[in-house]
Specification:
disulfide bond; 1 helix; LCCL; mainly beta; 30 strands; Ferric Hydroxamate Uptake Protein, Chain A, domain 1; seven-stranded mixed beta sheet; Jelly Rolls; membrane
Length: 360
């Protein structure tokens, strides 16, 4: 749990999480405080990674400070600020409960703090790639931290990517849970196109002919590849919809925006519901029960700037009884972020996957 007016981006789960001061990485406000109480499952201990601690220096960190307390052992860590930083980037505790306290008085500078944690069940922490294949544990909440993603899910990622954000972008882990990520390093391609996936947009990047490997030798740049469980395109045997638009254009010609035109490979105009329809839906029949790991949506660019900005997903085994998709947290029906224009494709992963014949 967290409390106070100085809390920034925060996502806390029993097994991992991310927390930051308000406005991070911009300057944190004056006269604020935040208290986070981290609680891991019994029998485990907490490991905290200091991603950034940049608090204005002062004697005994009086102007701004980060203080950690272990109530089970009575141990305190800190106070920390710019002239009294943690001695190591990783703090290994012997407790399943840790209180993190941040406060500020009047100050002029400082990015604030960014801290992530995991339990002793998941000791791996994100770090620089040192081998050709390595594994890291990504904490929950990394989606909204500062940093750019370079590359896209189909082409791979630069080795300077924010690895855990890239894993969310690729649909390998869910941001609300985190998880273990295995990466391999291979030769990079020349052009990485920008892509929007799972609520994150990567940047377009052009690599020059020659770059430097992490070891400093001349040669093609390296990239990190994070592969979802499956990237095969599933065949849809039948489409059905709540309604479809029967358009009559200015020349009196008919155009049927029927459900069958919803296939991603369709050229020209797409499916569209009857104008004014509320709670429109589109059904996809896969023929038999299949393992569905994600979905790609695209608007219709044929004369009309049509696209879906957000949507829910339902699944069914018989086409009659529908179950809402609630994602990895299982608490609320998940709202998927769709398109912002009619041109680009947007992908969203199902974590966990859906096993069903019908998708709505």
């Amino acid at each position: 749990v967290s409390a106070g007016n100085g809390c920034g981006h925060t996502l806390l789960t029993p097994h991992s999480g991310t927390l930051s001061s308000k406005n991070y990485p911009g300057t944190y406000p004056n006269h604020t405080m935040c208290c986070w109480r981290l609680q891991a499952p019994p029998g485990t201990s907490l490991l905290l990674a200091f991603g950034d601690v940049d608090l204005e220096p002062s004697e005994h960190c009086a102007h701004s400070s980060l203080l950690l307390a272990d109530p089970q052992t009575g141990t305190a860590y800190g106070p920390y600020c710019r002239n009294s930083v943690p001695s190591a980037p990783l703090l290994v505790t012997n407790s399943s409960t840790v209180t993190v306290l941040f406060n500020s008085t009047s100050h002029r500078s400082g990015r604030g703090l960014l801290v992530s944690y995991a339990t002793s069940q998941h000791p791996g922490t994100p770090g620089p790639p040192l081998t050709m294949c390595f594994s890291v544990y990504c904490p929950a909440g990394c989606k909204d931290i500062h940093g750019d993603i370079w590359g896209n899910p189909s082409q791979g990622y630069r080795d300077t990517s924010v690895l855990c954000k890239a894993a969310v972008h690729a649909g390998v882990i869910a941001d609300e849970l985190g998880g273990q990520v295995t990466l391999s390093r291979e030769k990079g391609i020349t052009l990485y196109e920008s892509a929007f996936a799972n609520g994150l947009r990567s940047k377009r990047w052009v690599r020059s002919r020659w770059g430097c490997t992490p070891h400093g030798s001349a040669g093609p740049a390296l990239c990190c590849l994070l592969s979802p469980a499956c990237d095969d395109v599933l065949e849809v045997v039948a489409f059905n919809a709540s309604s479809w638009w029967h358009e009559v254009d200015m020349l009196g010609q008919d155009r049927a925006w029927v459900a069958e035109r919803a296939a991603l490979s369709t050229t020209g105009y797409s499916w569209a519901a009857e104008p004014g329809t509320e709670a429109a839906w589109l059904d996809l029949d896969l023929g038999i029960r299949k393992n569905v790991t994600g979905i790609i949506t695209k608007g219709s660019s044929e004369q009309h700037n049509y696209y879906v900005t957000s949507y829910h997903v339902y699944s069914s085994r018989d086409g009659k009884n529908w179950r809402p998709y609630r994602g990895s947290s299982g608490q609320e029906d998940k709202v998927f972020e769709g398109n912002a224009d009619s041109q680009g494709e947007v992908s969203n992963a199902f974590i966990p996957p859906i096993i069903a014949r019908y998708i709505r």
